[in-house]
Each structure stands twice: as C-alpha cells, then as structure tokens.
Amino acid sequence: MDSTPRVIRKSDPSKVEIEWQDGASTVYSAKALRDLCPCAYCVDEHTGVQVHDPATVPEALTTKDVRLVGHYAISVQFSDGHGTGIYPFSYLRAGRRAGRPASS
Asked: Which CATH architecture best describes the domain 5-94?
C-alpha cells in the first residue's frame, strides 16, 4: 500500500479527499479526521489511549484550513478551534488508530 499522495483536496468545508499514487482514494469527513487526531491533547502520549471523546464533536464540524507539513503529513484547522494534530500520510492511508476502521 503506497502512502504517497498524488492529490490532496479540500473538496468542500466538510471533506478532505486524498488520491494516492497507486490510484486509490480516501475521503475523510471533518468529523472523522477530528476523531482520528493523533495529537497529545487527544491521545495520551505515554499509553497511546485516546482521551478525546468523539461524542463531543459536532456532526456539522468543518475544516477551516488544510496544510502540508513537509513532505510527510498534513495539519488541519477545524471549526471547533482544534488544530494541533499532524496527520502523517502513512497514518491517513492506514486510516485507523487502535484498530478502529477509517471513515473513508
């Protein structure tokens, strides 16, 4: 599975689409990305256990900004003010944390 993106696009305020080099594509809703946030605020950095409660995120969440982080990740600023997560491409391609399937 190739985790190199060919195209990353914010197709509308509530979705981020990634076309991968191998031809596959993944669509993440803003809520799904927020729920997958790997930052230390959302995931205990010592245990890896999610401390963010997905039930606290509104379904109508949007992405305000999506930016490249070097050649390996994106960062996302959400309408709820959260924006500290860095999402490595390999993490997004795998689409899960702690065995939870991706919303794609």
From this structure: 2-Layer Sandwich (3.30)
